[in-house]
Amino acid sequence: MNNRIKTKLGYIKSTPRPTQEYLNDFYQNLYFKEGITVTYNNKYSKREIYLKKVKSKLLIDFISQNLSNKKKRKLKFLEIGSGEGYLINAALKTNWLLKGVDYQVDPIKKLNKKALPYFVEKDPSVFIKDAIKNKEKYNIIVIQNVLEHVLDPEILISDLKTILNNTGILLIQIPNDYSITQKFALREKRIKKEYWFLPPQHLNYFNTKNLRVFLKKFKMKIIDAMSDFPIEFYLWGNKKNYTSDKSLGPYAHQARLAIEFLISKNSSHDILNFYRSLYNVNLGRNQILIVKKIKK
Question: What is the pTM (predicted TM-score) of this model?
């Protein structure tokens, strides 16, 4: 039985915690297998692949807009948790010095072979410790849906701050959990349980409010922010929804893909501003932040 504990910094964590050995085995051997997580599948439709590429290109544009010295071309870029390699692949068109790290190389071999020369198959926590030991510094660090998985998010952010250049930027993407939308859905009885509470896959739960508190502790400030598609809108509009009737999940997914496809036909500038607006009104399934060190 897993319990929920509110930490001093306001985020929720599950307990009891798994061992690091369990997590290493899970991410090295199981995470990318069919049916383990809704994030990854063994095969994708053409539209799904198209949108993965569009979103990755959008993140590169989002990062580029927030670089303090855009004329400095040889920036060192590090992605912790590269997954299937879509972001590294999108970054190939930049002049950045690229590096991606994750437990498994097979997803990249399958979907983004061009990213292979820039990928390191390694336990990310070990890679980070080695980078600290070697006094490595990066101008751009990205963690997409990583912070919710680790045993100690405070250690992760502290370590990443150590290897982040003083003028560098850190991009954090993480689910918006215990959000106003989810709490509203509970009050209106659109959902019967906290379906987003998923240990041992997700161990830590952040929302737009407590993530600000969390980052402030580490003297990090948000300089730009956006959300992604508000899939939880589909909790309303019918007597049943994708949480009460699992057979409706594929329909919600296809509807999201169709709308995201339409959104993708606009300029990067307009799409980014649309998603920034979603963040500003506290909507969207994931929150995507760009943060920098607060100058002393």
Answer: 0.94
